[in-house]
């Protein structure tokens, strides 16, 4: 039932004040129905401030009388789940963790923000975003069974006596190439060309090594200290890539 008028709603408990026990919310176009104690379960949160005030008329409402919050309606389900029992449960391979952290900050839920913050393990300094293979659509050569890929690792820490502030770390480069097979199965395959040279490593180090030759278009907002495997070089000459690394 829409909340056309607070006076027409069911009476809440003694602690709910002017609010009914059952409350309808419109969050970014998504409708949620929950209990008043759930919305005020985290003292100091934005929802607690909204639903403990005495002036109900100051809260925004939609055309059907529901309380309106102009935020991401899809992600609010996880905010509401957290407020029910103060536990974070997300689907496997959840892709919206960063955006959900931003929503938690907006709703003033510091403990949830901590749970969503990326964690660095002692064994894996890459955190929750390690260098992984970069899925791409296969090239025409690959569809004909002529493509192959190979990877070569390079660069070690900066040499002793290097200039201060020079970064140390590792960069992995790989290439996608194609080759041709002779008519006779005994004939050696002949390498044809390099289609693309990929780069995996810390963003700041990759920029320092490759400079303007680094194409960041597929991951433009990567922070300097985070790792990525989505960069590639603007040229396709392996010799030039290794000259840069050297």
From TrEMBL:
Domain of life: Eukaryota
Pfam families attached to this UniProt entry: BTB_2, H1_KCTD8_12_16
Domain BTB stretches: 21-124
Main location: membrane
Biological process per Gene Ontology, one example term: protein homooligomerization
Keywords noted in UniProt: Cell membrane, Cell projection, Membrane, Phosphoprotein, Postsynaptic cell membrane, Synapse
Matches recorded under InterPro entries: BTB/POZ_dom (IPR000210), H1_KCTD8_12_16 (IPR057093), SKP1/BTB/POZ_sf (IPR011333), T1-type_BTB (IPR003131)
Region (Disordered): 123-146
SUPFAM superfamilies on file: POZ domain
Signal peptide from the UniProt entry: none
Role according to the record: Auxiliary subunit of GABA-B receptors that determine the pharmacology and kinetics of the receptor response. Increases agonist potency and markedly alter the G-protein signaling of the receptors by accelerating onset and promoting desensitization.
Protein name: KCD12 protein
Taxonomic lineage of the native organism: Eukaryota, Metazoa, Chordata, Craniata, Vertebrata
Gene field: Kctd12_1
């Amino acid at each position: 039932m829409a909340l056309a008028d607070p006076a027409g709603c069911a009476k809440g408990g003694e602690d709910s004040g002017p609010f009914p026990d059952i409350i309808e919310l419109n969050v970014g176009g998504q409708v949620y129905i929950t209990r008043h104690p759930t919305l005020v379960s985290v003292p100091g949160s934005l929802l607690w401030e909204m639903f403990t005030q005495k002036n109900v008329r100051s809260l925004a409402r939609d055309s059907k009388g529901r309380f309106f919050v102009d935020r991401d309606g899809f992600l609010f389900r996880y905010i509401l789940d957290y407020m029910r029992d103060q536990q974070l449960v997300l689907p496997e391979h959840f892709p919206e963790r960063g955006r959900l952290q931003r929503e938690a900050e907006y709703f003033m839920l510091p403990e949830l923000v901590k749970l969503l913050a990326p964690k660095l393990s002692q064994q894996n300094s890459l955190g929750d975003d390690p260098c992984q293979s970069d899925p791409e659509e296969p090239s025409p050569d690959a569809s004909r069974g002529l493509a192959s890929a190979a990877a070569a690792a390079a660069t070690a820490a900066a040499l002793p006596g290097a200039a201060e502030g020079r970064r140390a770390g590792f960069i992995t480069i790989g290439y996608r190439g194609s080759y041709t097979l002779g008519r006779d199965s005994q004939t050696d395959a002949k390498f044809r060309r390099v289609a693309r040279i990929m780069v995996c490593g810390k963003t700041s180090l990759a920029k320092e090594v490759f400079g303007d030759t680094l194409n960041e278009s597929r991951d433009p907002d990567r922070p300097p200290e985070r790792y990525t495997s989505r960069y590639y070089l603007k040229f396709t000459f392996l010799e030039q890539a290794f000259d840069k690394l050297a």
